[in-house]
Design brief:
By secondary structure, the protein is α/β, with parallel strands linked by helices. The chain folds into 3 domains: 55-239, 3-Layer(aba) Sandwich (Rossmann fold); 264-425, no CATH class; 431-515. Helix content is 45%, strand content 17%. It is built from 15 helices and 14 strands. It has a 7-stranded mixed β-sheet with strand order 6-5-4-7-8-10-9, sandwiched between helices. Strands 11-12-13-14 form a 4-stranded mixed β-sheet. Strands 1-2-3 form a 3-stranded antiparallel β-sheet. A hairpin with a 5-residue loop joins strand 2 and strand 3 (28-31). Helix 4 runs parallel beside helix 5 and helix 9 runs parallel beside helix 11. InterPro entries: Methyltransf_16 (IPR019410), SAM-dependent_MTases_sf (IPR029063). Pfam families: Methyltransf_16.
Length: 516
């Protein structure tokens, strides 16, 4: 119910970077800073602890004001005892709850946002309640769980999330992280009276679909409470008691799985490249037999490296030295014989060690062949199977299919695919996930072009990447196919990345559209 005579919550003035918010029991005076321009996703630091390139948290967004007005209109008797403001930005939503009489309010955001938050807290201490700011990355659910368990007391909790979900490169993984944090908070809260308020201006149907799907998956009750021109702006989410119990059990199971992963990662880490920990952890997420799946993942990487190395096998005659040719042919024969039917030891540590020895043999062969040109995949010789505990965990099998070569007539080539036999159907990617993955691959390619003969195509590829990222606003197969046509054609001017390489970068999207 709207309080009698209540005015809309709005900005009334902005002087010297300080905005006044009216319509609350007390005026709020909050500092805003200029929002830096930049591409989608640049609001997230590339490296933890660094400054983001695009400071979207430095301004007051309209959806935040709509949320504040809705909370005010609930009436003073409905104000929560404790409030957590996730991704608080300027802190307006949480500070409004402080003005409305909440006993404890904590404003949280990334370290780069903390100075602005703390300044706004000091400028707006208007009641006897506690209000403070602290660092919390809502992509890390453990941080949120510690906050609830260690500091907050009361019977009623509000969790505010204003303008934290919007189109960006890793939006689906961010939606997952956001709900992981919500579940951690709600299951750590001792009482049942907890409500999540999600406010944002919809800029992408795919974002809304993603978070609604995740909410439904965990049993949240979702209600649209504020809309504008029939477009929802504010949502109220509640997690029933039974769903909270299920979520708590799920978090406990995940914690156990993480502990198992960490123990077995120690066995695997000496045999794989640095920086793959998060990749491996994502691969085994939700799997019951984590140790065996890590062996499968390791085996797949070995066969992928074998697949890549085999492209130079047909060029060993270019070594010119007969002794080198003989040595290379012998190493290739030994490698092919070993991988044709490799049975790993049943002990996990020994299995990883065996795969590590296989990779060492490939590295030695690669050192011998490092200057040779790549060619098409060899024919029937490129067959491999790796078994563990009587099961095929990875295989490399030749299949005849069309390999697209953009910018030229397509021809039939013999290609191979590394496949995991262990059931892990959840790893199938959606179209938005595939678009995001191809976008990331193009950016990696751009980063590798500096100083090469292909450096001239960087600006074109950056523009193509931005065009691809724009598809996430409304990701449809038709729009993806249109982007692919442009990508196939290449730039009109400048030195393009070779068409075969462009085909490889976009291959996941090509396969996604064909399978759809």
């Amino acid at each position: 119910m709207v309080p009698p005579g209540a005015q809309p919550v709005a900005r009334s003035s902005c002087q010297s970077g300080v905005t006044t918010i009216t319509g609350l029991p007390h005026l709020l005076h909050v500092s805003e800073l200029e929002v830096h321009t930049g591409g989608a996703g640049m609001d997230i630091p590339l490296t933890p602890g660094e400054q983001p390139l695009k400071l979207t948290g430095n301004r007051v967004w309209d959806a935040t004001l709509q949320l504040v007005e809705y909370l005010r209109d609930l009436g003073p008797h409905h104000v929560a005892d404790c409030v957590i403001d996730l991704g608080a930005g300027t802190g307006v939503a949480g500070l409004a709850c402080h003005s409305l009489g909440a006993a404890e309010v904590v404003l949280t955001d990334l370290p780069s946002q903390l100075p602005l938050l703390q300044a706004n807290v000091e400028a707006n201490r208007v009641s006897s309640g506690k209000v403070w700011a602290e660092t919390l990355d809502w992509r890390c659910s453990a941080e949120a769980e510690r906050l609830v368990a260690g500091q907050l007391k009361g019977a009623v909790l509000w969790v505010l999330a204003a303008e934290v979900l919007y189109p960006r490169e890793q939006q689906l993984s961010l939606v997952d992280a956001f709900f992981d944090t919500l579940l951690a908070i709600l299951t750590a809260w001792a009482k049942n009276t907890a409500t999540v308020f999600l406010a944002y201006e919809e800029r992408s149907a795919s974002v809304t679909e993603a978070w609604r799907s995740r909410a439904l998956q965990h049993g949240f009750l979702v209600q649209e409470v504020v809309s504008k021109d029939r477009v929802p702006l504010v949502f109220e989410l509640r997690l029933p008691h039974k769903a909270r119990l299920a979520a708590a059990q799920g978090l406990a199971d995940r914690a156990q799985s993480v502990a198992i992963f960490e123990a077995h990662w120690e066995l695997l880490q000496p045999f794989v490249e640095h920086g793959l920990r998060d990749v491996a952890r994502a691969h085994v997420a939700g799997v019951l037999d984590v140790p065996s799946m890590l062996v499968s993942w390791h085996a797949q990487r070995v066969l992928q490296q074998y697949h890549d190395l085999s492209r130079v096998f047909g060029a060993i005659a270019d070594l010119r030295d007969a002794r080198l040719v003989t040595a290379a042919e012998g190493q290739i024969h030994n490698l092919q014989s070993q991988l044709l039917q490799l049975e790993l030891p049943t002990d996990h540590r020994a299995a990883h060690a065996e795969l590590g020895r296989t990779k060492l043999a490939m590295r030695q062969l690669q050192a011998l062949l490092h200057d040779l040109p790549q060619g098409p995949l060899p024919g029937p010789a490129l067959v491999a199977t790796i078994r563990f505990k009587g099961l095929e965990v990875a295989s490399l099998l030749p299949t005849l299919e069309e390999e697209p070569v953009f910018g030229a007539d397509s021809q039939d080539h013999r290609t191979c695919s590394a496949t995991a036999i262990l059931d892990d159907a959840d790893l199938e990617a959606s179209l938005p996930e595939t678009v995001a993955a191809v976008y990331a691959a193009i950016l990696d390619e751009v980063a590798s072009l500096s100083g090469t003969k292909e450096d001239g195509s960087k600006s074109w590829q950056l523009q193509a990447a931005e065009d691809l990222l724009a598809l996430l606003d409304d990701c449809t197969p038709e729009a993806a196919r249109e982007w692919l046509e442009t990508w196939r054609a290449g730039p009109e001017t400048g030195t393009p990345t070779p068409s075969v390489r462009r085909a490889a970068l976009a291959a996941p999207l090509e396969r996604q559209l064909k399978s759809g």
